[in-house]
Records
---
Amino acid sequence: MHEYSVCLALMEQVERVAREHGAGRVERIVLKIGPLSGVEAPLLQHAWPLVAAGTLAADAELVTETAPVVVRCTQCGAESEAAPNRLLCGQCGDFRTRLVSGDEMLLASLELARIDEVKASCV
Amino acid sequence: MCDTCGCNITSGNRHLLRPGGRLERSGDGRAAVSVLQGLLSENDHQAGHNRSHFDAHGVLAVNLMSSPGAGKTRLLEATIGALGGEFAMAVVEGDLETENDAERIRAHGVEAVQIATGSACHLDAHMVHDALHRLDLTGLDILFIENVGNLVCPASFDLGQHRNITLLSVPEGDDKPAKYPVMFRAADLVLLTKTDLLPYLTDFDPGRAERCLRELASESPLLALSPATGEGLDGWLAWLRDEVAAQRERVAQGLSARPDIQPEGAALHLREPRGSALPAAPGRGGAAATAGGD
């Protein structure tokens, strides 16, 4: 359910970045969504068309990239991949680890078409 | 958070920043723009303002999260009963509908503002900000924010609180942290509630609940209590007293705090505060202390 809120927030950012770059249309949106971000990529994909309808990003391709869950052990220093609900060190098994990657919820990049190009393609 | 200092860059996405720069032209004349901004940066910005507002009034803001019916309101009633003479408290209540919880709090002589979220499954920083317009923080020691009962969505939204507390009630089962890792990872303190039911729900193993929590790389304390019998309340009240004292000390030094579980980017975001960073809060390993006005 909160994926819709996230899409609304994404739309605001996309429109702002497009404005800053004088873009008339957004062609591609790349998100980075980690398994521990609290957001599900398929639900974002479902919610997105509702939010994007009628905007300059209506036809944009929404790409969600994931990142592996990686922890760094504060005891032995090893970095290892882990399951989202088992963040133990893969080397020594200690639970005192820090998450290095896996909780990202980022707008990574946009591909934009400039206003003049949009006009040209509309003619 | 911030889109200028690089605090959102982690080893998971750093490669996106490499060659091509911020504005890369692709072959067909389209512009590829690297943004790398948290999707909830708008919310986080408002949360930062809320936090500054709490700090300006010297208030400790605590966010209570759990599934529906885990005993958040009951815990607050017991807390008000025990600490009413010691601290000035207020409560922001989040529910989809009704003023029921706010009325329960008001019956104890404590101010409560109800946020009826309609169909929204969580509170966000803007809702809390709006609620603050209906609440005078002057003279308050603790503001409790009772989030919407939900073990999923509330974990994703910073409200401006200093500490997160997640409740796990005995009837829910001891493997809840393994099932809802995002929520339990966000907790600075986990409270095992309704322990008076342990004799009846014999398949609940408190040791297993703690193991599931530790497997999330959480060093947060886990306290068992029952507001119904009063068992274990002392530990919770001691934790609160320590946190109020820590908040007063931070405020005096122009520092602030946010819940300890943060993406690695938050560590990059830490800048040299005015004065020195405080040691970790009692019972916590390495609670983040940042300069005020974040």
Note: The first helix of chain A runs from residue 2 to 20.
---
Amino acid sequence: MSRLTEEQTQKFAEAARLKLTDAETKQYTEQLGKWIEYAENLNELPLEGVEPAASVSSVKNALREDKVKPWIERDEALQNVPEHKDGLIKVPAILE
Amino acid sequence: MTLFHHRLQEIQDMLHKKELSVQDVVEHSMKRIKETDGKLEAFVALNEEKALETAKRLDEQNESAEKGALFGLPIGLKDNILTKDMPTTCSSKMLENFQPLYNATVVEKLDEADAVVVGKLNMDEFAMGSTTEHSAFQKTKNPWNLNCVPGGSSGGSAAAVAAGQVYFSLGTDTGGSIRQPAAFCGVVGLKPTYGLVSRFGVAAFASSLDTVGTITKSVEDNAYLLQAIVGEDKLDATSVQMDIPNYINSLSGDVKGLKIGVPKEFLSEGVDEAVKASVKEALKTFEKMGAVCEEVSLPHSSYAAASYSIISAAEASASMARFDGIRYGYRTENADNLQDVYVNSRSEAFGDEVKRRIIFGTFALSSGNYEAYFKKAQQARTLIKQDFDSAFENYDVLIGPTAPSTAYRFGEASEDPAKLYIGDLLTTPVNLAGNPAISIPCGFSNGLPIGLQIIGKPFDEQTIFRAAHAFEQATAFHKEKPEL
């Protein structure tokens, strides 16, 4: 698969909670197609049996005590909330 | 000669002897910003009142013997580093009005070192880009030529230091975002080893690659600044517990016997002749000082850009999932239901480059594509890391160009995305492997700076500093300043 359809691009956008204009869909479909071709250079590599590297960190299982510490108060935490009421975050109705 | 051309210790001495006050130093920074930022547009926010307040407090403390290592020095921060005194926007409409409730660990450390944060610096939106043209707010210019980009994504951080607006700055480097703008702006930029500097309170782009690093006008300043921000942080699970070396002591000026590997892939076609010539000249300078240069191969580095583009987009799609219009950030006014809040908030507030990477990343992680793309990218990453590990069995540092060309003109990179892929070839292998690397000035072409990249072993920033400092002592490139 080296080319995508516009429907496929829209499917990936929807999965990422993005709505695209027609112009965006067209543009991203073309760019994503090129990008996939480029990414497929990796097919030249003999990768059989090579361990995937999720991280290069030398740290394993960083543990700390599970202890309550003072942190931001509720009023403060609500400062950046776009809409809130009675100390709770407000969103449109979930159930009709 | 302006105040910021002085060495760090000279300024400290003047402050100590009261020939200068911290308020003078901070006012100098503010004045320079006001004079030049109309042209440069490096800053997205200034914190004049608070910075002068801090300066006043430090002047009052000047009597006491206990002074931080960066006492009174004005610093600018890339705007993805959380500051509780100032908004943090990531140069995105999504966070245009976001006011952090706490400081990043590096900001706390700067505060302990008595540095003065004067403002926040422009960047590509959420650090995705390499020209700073993807900021939602403004286009930062290159101080050497206002028709050129400063590089990116830490373009504001590099431009501000080059223009003498601040003494130094912090940036972040996920695929080259400190080194490349440092090269384009003729300053010193260090991407530390993954895990050396805490990322707590720094907005995530691609968490297995993101690092916070230092941008300065000299190697010595860089060592001082790094010293102040390193160390284990319980709030960043990837930060490493280790004995922190004294970086300033590593600036011996002596590189006799230093074994330098020169990756032949870094001087291949696609790199401008002027850049190659400067790098070769720099290698001769090292040889004259007694270092030994030999060609080496990183055979998988040509796959780094592909591996990087998949891994970084995949991780970015996950990092950006937190922006849903509910708890903070932009919320749409066009929503009848919860789904609309998510979709319309994200679609209205993310810029083009961010959307593109989210979609690419979602593609690479989707079932059916995961094995074919994401897993292969991670396997290639293993091979790229092994290349570095074996090269470092024989060499102390690897040296090559930081970027394949000097700074692009505005719009040039988006017209020819191949330029960006070639650019990624030089910097992304280092992020994939996790090693540290610095960019230092090593020449000019048509009035624009060229950067030399020195890559070290993991957690061996000392040897990088030693080599970079010796080169700086032997050359005068870092003394050139842009006229503004």
Note: Residues 6-44 of chain A form one domain.
